[in-house]
Specification:
alpha/beta, 5 helices, seven-stranded mixed sheet
Length: 218
């Protein structure tokens, strides 16, 4: 079983992630190293490396591997960077980010997923990840971050999330409503200027409890 899972992991990287124009060696190496099957609910382990979103408790889902790969490739945190993830899920993306960055703070609304992610991350020895129970629609962690990954979608971008982004930082967000959503990379320049670029289309569940904000114009 172990050999089959390792083969499936390599095939996921080569036949799914690379085909989505992810070529950065450090990103591919992380995806080949982190055992995604350890972050999947046991009854669904056979789907760990499939090109599909995987159901989690509390009505949540693990994103497709190709989306995880694109997020890592877009943000490309460096060894000295701090990262904020909004929406921990089972902890897989946080584990990947932890291999690239100095520290990761990941916040999750649901207590059950907080407990699951902490257990998974401890087993993966991701000691530089802090998982906190927090509702991102009402509060955010203290401090500012070099990279921010928002793993749920928003009908319109909520500019509040820019408040935790350092100058020179990058933020990943998915904006829109099904069936059309845009994944966007939002950067804050050294002088505070904001730039936004659409990078691909996808559909993921919306961020829970998010009030519909006034439209933010990039």
């Amino acid at each position: 079983m172990s050999i089959n899972l390792e083969f499936a992991r390599r095939r996921m990287v080569e036949q799914q992630v690379r085909c989505w124009e992810v070529y950065e060696p450090s990103v591919l190496a992380v995806l080949e190293t982190i055992a995604r099957d350890r972050f999947v609910p046991a009854p669904l382990m056979h789907l760990a490396y499939a090109d599909t979103a995987i159901p989690l408790p509390c009505g949540q889902h693990m994103m497709k591997p190709i989306v995880d790969g694109r997020i890592l490739d877009i943000l490309r945190p460096e060894p000295q960077h701090s990262v904020l993830e909004i929406g921990t899920g089972s902890g897989f993306l946080a584990a990947c980010l932890s291999k690239m960055a100095d520290s990761v703070v990941s916040i999750e609304l649901h207590d059950e997923l907080v407990a699951m992610a902490r257990k998974n991350l401890a087993r993966a020895e991701a000691v530089n990840v802090s998982v906190q129970q927090m509702d991102a629609t009402s509060e955010l962690p203290d401090g500012k971050f070099d990279a921010v990954a928002i793993t749920a979608s928003m009908p319109r971008f909520d500019a509040r999330f820019l408040e935790v982004l350092k100058p020179g930082g990058r933020l990943f967000a998915i904006v829109g409503e099904a069936p059309v959503m845009e994944a966007r990379i939002i950067t804050r320049g050294s002088g505070g200027e904001i730039e936004s670029e659409a990078v691909f289309e996808t559909v993921v569940a919306p961020l829970e409890n998010l009030p519909i904000p006034a439209r933010f114009v990039f």
